[in-house]
Amino acid sequence: MAYRFATDAHTVEFDKTPFNGYTLGGYTAAVLIKRSTLATRQGILFISDLSFPYFQFGFTSGGTNDLMLASRTTAGGSPTVIAGLGLASTSLWYLIVVTGNGAAIPTFHLYDGTSWVHSGGSAPIGATIAFGSSQRVWISPPSGWGSEYFKGDIVCCGFKKSDSSNVTVETLTTTAFSSWQAFGFEWLVGFESAGTLTNRGSSAGGGEIARVGTSVVSDPPGWAWPPRITEMGAIGVKNGSNQAVAFRYSDQPWWPIVNANAIAMKKQADEGAYATLAGRANGYVPVDDVPEPTGYIYVG
């Protein structure tokens, strides 16, 4: 499934925890989309407090239909763009990526289902934004922004707090979400169901917190989601008075811990050693620190 953003009001907001304290240094932002409305400026990934500073990755206005990145601390000035790509189709799925480091000229990357294009932007972005407590994260700006809404379908979006080479960018595909999971995004959302969306990147938090509108539509041809829950295993752990139960989902390399108290778990690789796993803010621990469950409950 994918999500369709059909009107100005359609938007999804996400928890900003993965961006807290981040000053724009190295970055990689990637989206898999299909357009429905052309020739208007549209923000797909939008990070802002509805004022300045803000970060916006999307399309320019006018007949050129170019890719655009705006990173501004004050009003005025033009966004950096990549000209000549002509993303003017409403039937093609585009994999679009922007990479860079700080205020330097970014590199735009486009895959149209046939071939990759990599090209530098028209200018430096001009502002290295510090993401503070007031910034918020949206797919398509909210109505309070007043314009620049995304119109089209989206499959997934990811953000990584480091630059990426052309070769690395080309490991992303238009056929498998697993290639996006393997990329190393701190924040990664797949629009695969009508339920509440979660961050499937490596950072804590980042899940959906609000939604206006949108509808569920078909995926791109040949697209494959990994099984969300094909098997579920459980293990009970006790250390003194602390008890916890961990569940493993087949497409997640983490074990959610129900009890966030500090616990000790025996490492699978060394039965004589215990790993003390203090309560984590995200409630997760790496799977390598947890033995395999003895049985599974098949639910799908």
Give the topology.
Elements lengths: L1 E4 L5 E4 L11 E10 L6 E7 L5 E6 L7 E6 L7 E3 L11 E8 L5 E5 L4 E5 L15 E4 L12 E9 L5 H4 L7 H5 L5 E4 L17 E5 L2 E3 L14 E8 L2 E8 L4 E3 L6 E4 L7 E4 L6 E3 L9 E2 L3
Antiparallel strand pairs: 1-12, 1-15, 2-11, 2-14, 3-8, 3-12, 4-5, 4-11, 5-6, 6-7, 8-9, 9-10, 12-13, 16-17, 16-22, 18-21, 19-20
Please explain how this structure is put together:
Strands 1, 3, 8, 9, 10, 12, 13 and 15 form an eight-stranded antiparallel β-sheet that branches. Strands 7-6-5-4-11-2-14 form a seven-stranded antiparallel β-sheet, with no helix packed on it. It has helices at residues 166-169, 177-181, and strands spanning 2-5, 11-14, 26-35, 42-48, 54-59, 67-72, 80-82, 94-101, 107-111, 116-120, 136-139, 152-160, 187-190, 208-212, 215-217, 232-239, 242-249, 254-256, 263-266, 274-277, 284-286, 296-297. The protein contains two helices and 22 strands. With 300 residues, it is an all-beta fold. The model is unreliable at 229-300 (pLDDT under 50). It folds into two domains: 2-217, Jelly Rolls, CATH 2.60.120.200; 232-297.
Describe the structure concisely:
With 300 residues, the protein is an all-beta fold. It has two helices and 22 strands.
Features:
single chain; Jelly Rolls; globular; disordered C terminus
Uncertain runs: 229-300
Using the CA coordinates, give the radius of gyration: 21 Å
How many structural domains can be distinguished in the coordinates?
2
H/E topology pattern: EEEEEEEEEEEEHHEEEEEEEEEE
Strand content: 35-45%
Give me the oligomer status. single chain
CATH fold label of the largest domain? Jelly Rolls
**Morphology:** globular
Structural class: mainly beta
How many helical stretches?
Answer: 2
- The CATH class of the largest domain, by name, is Mainly Beta
Mean pLDDT: 76
Gap from first CA to last CA: 17 Å
